[in-house]
Amino acid sequence: MFGILRTLWLTFLHAGHRRVTVGYPEHKPPLPPRYRGRIILSRDPDGMERCVACNLCAVACPVDCISLQKAEQDGRWYPDYFRINFSRCIFCGMCEEACPTYAIQLTPDFEMSEYLRPNLVYEKEDLLISGTGKYPDYSFFRVAGVKILGKDKGEAEREAAPIDLHTLLP
Amino acid sequence: MATILIDGRACPARTDENLLQACLEAGADLPYFCWHPELGSVGACRQCAVKQFSGPDDKTGRIVMACMTPVTDGTILSIDDPQAREFRAGVVEWLMTNHPHDCPVCPEGGECHLQDMTVMTGHDRRRYRFTKRTHRNQDLGPFINHEMNRCIGCYRCVRFYRDYAGGEDLAAFGAHNDLYFGRHEDGALENAFSGNLVEICPTGVFTDKPFSRIYSRKWDMRGAPSVCAHCAVGCNTIVNARQGTVRRVINRYHDAVNRYFLCDRGRYGHGFTSAPTRPRAPMMRQDGIPVPVSIATALERFAAMAADGPIVGIGSTRASLESNFALRALTGAAQFSTGLAQPDHDLAMLVPALLRTTQARNPSLHDMESADAVLVLGEDVCVTAPRLGLALRQTLRRAAYPAADTARVPHWMDAAVRMLGTDAPSPLRVLTPAPTDLDPVAATTHRAAPDTLARLGFAIAHRIDASAPDAPDLSETEIQLADRLANALRAARRPLIVAGLQYANAALLHAAANIATALHAAGTDPALSLVMPECNSMGMALLGGLPLDDVRAMARAGRIGTLVVMENDLTRRLDAAALHDLLSAVPHLVVIDHIATPLAPLADLALPAASFAESGGTLVSTEGRAQRFLPAILPDMPVQESWHWAQHLTHTMTDAPHWTDLDQIIAAMAQDITALSRVGSAAPGADYRLDGRRVRSEPARISGRTAVRANISVQDRPLPQSPDTPLSPSMEGAYAPDMPGALVPFYQVPGWNSVQSLNRFQQEIGGPMRGGDAGIRLLDDAAQAPSDWHYDIPAPFSFGPDDFLLLPEHRLFGTEELSALSPPIAARAAPAALRLSTLPTGLEDGAMANITLAGEPITLPVRHDPALPPGIALCPPHLAARAFNAPIRVRLRRVDAP
Amino acid sequence: MTAPMPVIIGVTLAVLLGLATFLTWFERRLLGLWQDRYGPNRVGPGGILQAVADGIKILFKQDWIPPFADRGVFVLAPAIGMMTVLLSFGVVPVTAFWSVAGDLNVGLLFVLAMMGMGVYGVVLAGWASNSKYALLGGMRAAAQMISYEVFMGLSVLGVVMQAGSFTMRDIVLAQSGLWFVVPQALGCVVFTLAGIAETHRLPFDLPEGENELGAGFHTEYSGMKFGMFFLAEYAGVVLISVLLVTLYLGGWQGPLLPPMLWFALKTGALICLFILLRAALPRPRYDQLMALGWKILLPLSLINIAATGAILLLHAPG
């Protein structure tokens, strides 16, 4: 009985408390950089697409809303198309976690409502940004042992020069 | 049977296998790299270490390599032993020290044995902090990508390529860390089985180059069990598709047929399914110009045509039984043609008759591998049936077994067995007009014209059994050769005679049958294999029909109102004049095909058919094995299966018979045609359920389902259903390692994502599938009265100075109709040339010569080939003159450069 | 008052319904205040037009009757629920000289009767919906409302005994010295709780029970039919407040301010109290609800009658 009255009293006192609701959109709350909002595709420090079309984001996606097709030029893999159906996306961030090249990143932008569902289907040109996103230094092809235009075998990090098969030395 | 204790669990094992096999068969996860069920053990990678205990009292044990240790009854071993685990983890860590950081851009990723084994051993952190060795890659041609950085040095590739497939141009170079597997210089891998390196390599050194252009991860592709359509062997394949296109073809294990390997024609020949020239809409001729029309318009047009007179159908040896049967139902059996001109028609009909009546086994490919004497009579099996050629090559390995048994070396101990077998005499004897790939390993090779070879064959039969007819007027060398071969064959326990239709010579087949009959009478257990030219030639022979020549006669007599040609390019069967005569005598021509042929533009109505990847059906292989292929893609209207078209055409005239799915046609066919009465058992029907559900056709973790079509429509669409297949259209459904072998859509078991997971699907390693093998042999049933000797001994071969017998030079790449349309195969197809052993006066190597072929003058460069017998010229069929297919006498004229 | 009866009724209806509509917004704002939120603050000044927006929305919604429902009863039920509440207001004296329907001599009995009728609205709605959640809600409503009617009736008897009349005006006039809330404190508490249960307001909204029953008796209702249940609930809050004011808090009486304003102030304060109850208290279990009624409120109201009677007899002249 007393508990109930005390509850009533305490609740009543809350009338004088500060309200926790933030009056969006007049007041935009600060979002942390790792907030899970709109997905983007970033570029590496050299300005090339980071995505290597490995399909790991697509397979990690629990709602299967990512689809892409691999293409290749001068040893670099890249997505021929890269499509995210944001009308299905649940912003869980599994794609970002799965990405081995830091290409796919979730950003602190969630204002992406549309009146038409087809407008929520983002293609590569909608997703690709010109910067590196949250990871300014990483470049997959600098550590991977494949040959691309401008980086020969043996020129990646911690790589020895290619073996000369014609040498007679042991 | 023996019993071994694996980590305290008693498991049955066979004493002719090694501990690794026994562990895998027992379902244990034991990592390995260099061992392969077909290649045996060499103990190179040290990955399959287990601890073996000498008895129940032995608590210490010792580490042994499971793949190098034979099973003995009561063996006690431990996989989980901490020391063994540590050993294996260490091995993987060493192997990975130089592995590049490139799994995301490796096409092997997701189906990589190295990934699986690394996860299995628990290695997940790189401790090695020094530089990695790197290698430069080679351009290995249009089939194979090369990325040597990924190599872990297991030697599987060279063991397969050199030891198993007989290739010369892939080798190991360098030593220790610098080990390199490649060619001596850039260039296409020459061996016909180079594509298997993709599946043999446990990691991503050798990957599929055409697939790489349209790459999808394994988990993203729908799979369907299929049967190769590029020769008559009937290799089982899995077709992988995504987004409505065929992405690749990989091997599907069949215990008795192709086992672990496919030839490159079968693996890379599927490109025709996505050719840009493929017909995609019904084309109707209006005012002389073909225009695309709707199905309804096309059928109305056909109904109008049908009113004009009788319909005659021309089937095809590259179409399924069901399609041919549906066409036969449209026209009636008396108006149905096999689509084969003489002499191909008669020869095709002869083959099942000979196989049934000759007192010899009709061997499967696996059966052939255990032959102890092989006579190849007038057929270059390495190009007409490449996988059969590879099976014949394995007889060499078997030849080493007696020596191995004497030395008490188990057969799986590969290096030792091969070493012991170096002195074993080759069981192969190759008698062909032209050199073959088997020549280097054959004990005897002999070059002669087909007629001469047939005479030799008859002579051999006579020398084995004197009651067989002898060929008269043999030369001294031929008599000696016949004596030698007869002695060799008679001495064998399981001799094998292989002949075929390549040179369209009935005497060769009869000679082969005579030899087999004689061998049977001599008390051996002979086998006779006759190689058919196309994937469903045997099916067509069992189905029966008129030869094309009869159709021409009917046309001349004005007894054809409409000619329906199904999946058959008549320009390859009839020369231009004959075809023109036929078509001008026929008021209406309907063509049903899935490739663009020169015939289609001539048709009043051209209907787009579904290729093998988009339809279900049954093909009968050269050994008479009916095998079902299932659709990997459901075709988008108006493209549909040929049998659907035949049904639609039938229904423009009559209501019956009404078949709505494949199983109904199969049932009707089995009832109608005695020879095909058991064809329904080739595979489970569409009503098959595994654990109450359809078999899923997509891996459970397929991705992008809600995005892949989102650019077209963001709404979900119901899954397309097909009544023709027991496979479900999606990843929903049942999947188990004991599913029927005819339904396996892909191989995957938990922890084993690569093709090596196949081990779990087999009753025993290298044995039949747990769910039963695919297909059914149709020729085994009828025990017909054995035939008498054949007497059609040809006259000795004769030729003049400018007068040659022009033989079709079938090639691995380029002469087969469908695969020639596949870009990677076309890239390997060499231009046509005329090969001669003796150049007539005035012609030198490289000069241009003119011949009249199939009614048209052809100019070709001449190549001197001293290996050919005199009086023989070779020219690839269909390349120079489209209709050229059978031997023909030609005269050569020099063409001077303008 | 000289205005003709239809005008009086019309104005009263407009005021009551307007008040109920206003309360839908006011309650949410107040809940927001006590729960450190804002509540509806977007439409109009302070969000006041939210009630209008909701009204428009609910009016324009499809007026759908499930095909499996009992059509006639389904339509009738919300009307009963609304009507009984509105009729009760007729006898409440707003000032000493004015009430809607005049000064009925059985005013309090009429109110109790209407409350008893109100059960039908809810029970019939649950039954006519022909769906299991609605039926369960209707059953809960039947048991709960019929039970609490007992204590409500018993609890007001103390007031009647003290005032010696069923006439609402007389009851108010009898409080000119001391409001009945002091002598009838026990009855007041019982009446308040019973009133909440009768109007199935939170925390006693078990017939709705959205956590477990979807929306209880009005699961199948939508559009304005649902709107009627919704408004009836708020009108019910007003009614209970008004009755509490009349029976226990001296009605219109008070110093300085005009009687009408006193009446409104007291009513408003009570409404706020009901909203505070909703803001603060969780819903009890159904068995706890029934136990509270039969094991605590019933004895308390009986004690109240007995004590009141005893004291009246003791002080009775002669």
From TrEMBL, chain A:
Binds 2 [4Fe-4S] clusters per subunit. NDH-1 is composed of 14 different subunits. Subunits NuoA, H, J, K, L, M, N constitute the membrane sector of the complex. GO terms for biological process: aerobic respiration. Its cofactor is [4Fe-4S] cluster. Its EC number is 7.1.1.-. Its main location: membrane. Belongs to the complex I 23 kDa subunit family. It comes from the Bacteria. Residues 39-71, 80-109 form the 4Fe-4S ferredoxin-type domain. One of its GO terms (cellular component) is plasma membrane. The keyword Translocase applies. NDH-1 shuttles electrons from NADH, via FMN and iron-sulfur (Fe-S) centers, to quinones in the respiratory chain. The immediate electron acceptor for the enzyme in this species is believed to be ubiquinone. Couples the redox reaction to proton translocation (for every two electrons transferred, four hydrogen ions are translocated across the cytoplasmic membrane), and thus conserves the redox energy in a proton gradient. One of its GO terms (molecular function) is iron ion binding. It is found in: Cell inner membrane; Cell membrane. Keywords: 4Fe-4S, Cell membrane, Iron, Iron-sulfur, Membrane, Metal-binding, NAD, Oxidoreductase, Quinone, Repeat, Translocase, Ubiquinone. [4Fe-4S] cluster 2 binds at residues 61, 89, 92, 95. It is an enzyme of class 7 (translocase). [4Fe-4S] cluster 1 binds at residues 51, 54, 57, 99. This is NADH-quinone oxidoreductase subunit I. It comes from Gluconacetobacter liquefaciens (Acetobacter liquefaciens). It is a peripheral membrane protein.
TrEMBL record, chain B:
GO terms for biological process: ATP synthesis coupled electron transport. Residues 83-122 form the 4Fe-4S His(Cys)3-ligated-type domain. Residues 221-277 form the 4Fe-4S Mo/W bis-MGD-type domain. Its cofactor is [2Fe-2S] cluster; [4Fe-4S] cluster. GO terms for cellular component: membrane. One of its GO terms (molecular function) is 4 iron, 4 sulfur cluster binding. It holds the Pfam family Molybdop_Fe4S4. SUPFAM superfamilies: 2Fe-2S ferredoxin-like (SSF54292), 4Fe-4S ferredoxins (SSF54862), Formate dehydrogenase/DMSO reductase, domains 1-3 (SSF53706). InterPro entries: 2Fe-2S_ferredoxin-like_sf, 2Fe-2S_ferredoxin-type, Mopterin_OxRdtase, Mopterin_OxRdtase_4Fe-4S_dom, NADH_UbQ_OxRdtase_75kDa_su_CS, NADH_UbQ_OxRdtase_ferredoxin, NADH_UbQ_OxRdtase_Gsu, NADH_UbQ_OxRdtase_Gsu_4Fe4S-bd. It catalyses: a quinone + NADH + 5 H(+)(in) = a quinol + NAD(+) + 4 H(+)(out). Residues 1-83 form the 2Fe-2S ferredoxin-type domain. Keywords: 2Fe-2S, 4Fe-4S, Iron, Iron-sulfur, Metal-binding, NAD, Oxidoreductase, Quinone, Translocase. Composed of 13 different subunits. Subunits NuoCD, E, F, and G constitute the peripheral sector of the complex. Belongs to the complex I 75 kDa subunit family. This is NADH-quinone oxidoreductase subunit G. The gene is nuoG.
Automatic annotation (TrEMBL), chain C:
It comes from the Bacteria. NDH-1 is composed of 14 different subunits. Subunits NuoA, H, J, K, L, M, N constitute the membrane sector of the complex. The keyword Transmembrane applies. The gene is nuoH. It is an enzyme of class 7 (translocase). PANTHER family: NADH DEHYDROGENASE SUBUNIT 1, NADH-UBIQUINONE OXIDOREDUCTASE CHAIN 1. It catalyses: a quinone + NADH + 5 H(+)(in) = a quinol + NAD(+) + 4 H(+)(out). InterPro entries: NADH_UbQ_OxRdtase_su1/FPO (IPR001694), NADH_UbQ_OxRdtase_su1_CS (IPR018086). GO terms for cellular component: plasma membrane. The chain crosses the membrane at residues 6-26, 73-100, 106-127, 148-166, 178-197, 226-249, 261-281, 293-316. GO terms for molecular function: NADH dehydrogenase activity; oxidoreductase activity, acting on NAD(P)H, quinone or similar compound as acceptor; quinone binding. Its EC number is 7.1.1.-. It is found in: Cell membrane; Membrane. NDH-1 shuttles electrons from NADH, via FMN and iron-sulfur (Fe-S) centers, to quinones in the respiratory chain. The immediate electron acceptor for the enzyme in this species is believed to be ubiquinone. Couples the redox reaction to proton translocation (for every two electrons transferred, four hydrogen ions are translocated across the cytoplasmic membrane), and thus conserves the redox energy in a proton gradient. This subunit may bind ubiquinone. It is a multi-pass membrane protein. This is NADH-quinone oxidoreductase subunit H. Keywords: Cell membrane, Membrane, NAD, Oxidoreductase, Quinone, Translocase, Transmembrane, Transmembrane helix, Ubiquinone. It holds the Pfam family NADHdh. Its main location: membrane. GO terms for biological process: aerobic respiration. NCBIfam families: PRK06076.1-1, PRK06076.1-2. Belongs to the complex I subunit 1 family.
